[in-house]
Amino acid sequence: MSTVVLLTLTGLGLAALYFLIASGLSLVFGLAGVLNFAHGLFLSVGAYATWWAAPRWGWLPALAFGVAVAAATGALVELVLIRPLYTRHTEQVLVTVGLSLAGVALLQSVWGADARVFPRPSWTSSVVGVGGAQVPADRFLLIGVAVLVLLGLLAFLRFTRYGLIIRAGVENRAMVSALGIDVRNAFTLVFAIGGALAGLAGILAGMYFSSISPGQGAALLIFAFIVVVIGGLGSVAGAAGAAVAVGLLQQFVNYYGTAGAGDVSVVALLAVVLLLRPTGLAGKVATA
Known about the structure:
two-stranded antiparallel ribbon; amino-acid transport; transmembrane; cell membrane; Branched-chain amino acid ABC transporter permease; BCAA_transport_permease
């Protein structure tokens, strides 16, 4: 029984990490219509900024600095690279893929390709007893942050002025612009929020793995894309449900199966969902 409890809670912790990465990705695609392959770079930027700042300023200021740098990076990418390409989707993919590769190369040139030990509060290294299982404390931190992010995003989109502007701009950009509202600023905000969420995910990923590396964001982005596709492109709530399914499946199969079986099972789940429901679990089904 304790093994099941441990696998469940650690699986939920992994699911929380996947959701934090996928939430920004899903938000940017759902509201701005951009499939951002440079999202993993925002994750790495936030992690490295926090790693650099933590020994100098302390953990909490470093956390805020990392999230802010990632948010600024997201806004800058939208202003300089994405804004001229909103109606040119092929170019969007090429630019974001190229930016991702260039960003990893830049991080490697500055700090090297080797993994760096990531600083973390001492209490996150402790364990908590639950149902006879000893669960790492940082898993509960991941789960709590993911729940807060999910509730915050849903509230932002439903109850705030900018959330309503963004949703209206997605449905009919010309009409919103005719009302004198600059939709471009709203989409820049979407990228800034997506970057901030990626930066936060990068920081928590550093705590989860106890280290960071230039290619870590790109590696995690693969599972984030799987979560977004399974949940339904553009659905934040769908991404949350898909992250739980992927995290639990991967954790249980890795434990009870052979090495690497968890990753294979996740890809198999993706294939099944695409065959049975191509729009994803929370996606809208097209009707004739």
